[in-house]
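Reader question, answered in our methods column.
A reader sent in the components of a multi-part assembly and asked whether the whole thing could be modeled at once rather than chain by chain. We filled in our standard form and ran it. Here is what they sent:
COMPLEX SIZE: two components
ENTRIES:
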Amino acid sequence: MRTSPPRLATRLLVRFGPREEFLAGDLAERYARGKSRAWYWRQVLGAILVNIAEELRAGKAALLRGWLSWLYLETFWNLTEALGVWSPFVAFLTGSAALRWAGKRSYYSSKKEFYVFFAMKFLYMSVVYQSWDYYRPSAMDVAFGLIVLAVAPAVFFLARRFRRDEGCP
Amino acid sequence: MASPTSLSGFELMVMLAVIRLGDEAYGVPISEEIERSTGSEVVLGSVYAALTRLQEKGLVTSELGEATSERGGRAKKYFRPTAKGVRDVRDARRAFMKLWRGLPQIEGGNA
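And here is the structure of the entire assembly that came back:
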């Protein structure tokens, strides 16, 4: 019997391929019966690509919700900035509510994007404005922040109930 | 007649391989059967993706099999066609036969 299949390829398959072990078992069986290393690598890379496509197919609705919440976040940010009522605090609260509305799957996947988005915005502002001194909170900003603070608990409560109804942890 | 589930060309091939193999239908023989018929290499990952879709449509069922050392101690997953699956394949065949009938380019073998 031949030696075990390429370790790196098998690790990649386990990490990025389908969760079930049957595919890895089938590949090992065919490799043991004489298939080449090149064949094994082709199969592993093919399986990873197919798995990504299948995940996208299964998560289409979640992706759409995530994209919509993302669109909301960007629009909100630009709008408040244009109106002069922008503040990181307000954007963070409403953004969190939007991401929670998006539901479990897209919430968790969007959360990373959310932080990257903030990090990039902060970096951009630091470079463009050189400092944060340009920002002066207006009365309208404070009022808007207070409204959001008042509404946020209700939004979070509803979002939690929605997630519980969906069977999310 | 109940409306048949829509089957893609590849899903139909996988279904036919599962029916043909009977009790021995798991990933390896299914992919070998398709490779023998088409003459080209098949990505096992796409076979499993098709089988998952067929299972979601209620056309096949699956059960766990034995694990062997050749497979690195990993179990096999056997597939069986359901009655609905066999019926849908029969309907697909009927539809294809109707479409193929009376096409001289195909019957004569001249492109």
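What stands out: The helical segments of chain A are 7-16, 22-32, 37-58, 60-83, 88-101, 104-129, 139-165. Chain A touches chain B through 28 residues (CB under 8 Å).
Send us your own complexes using the same form.
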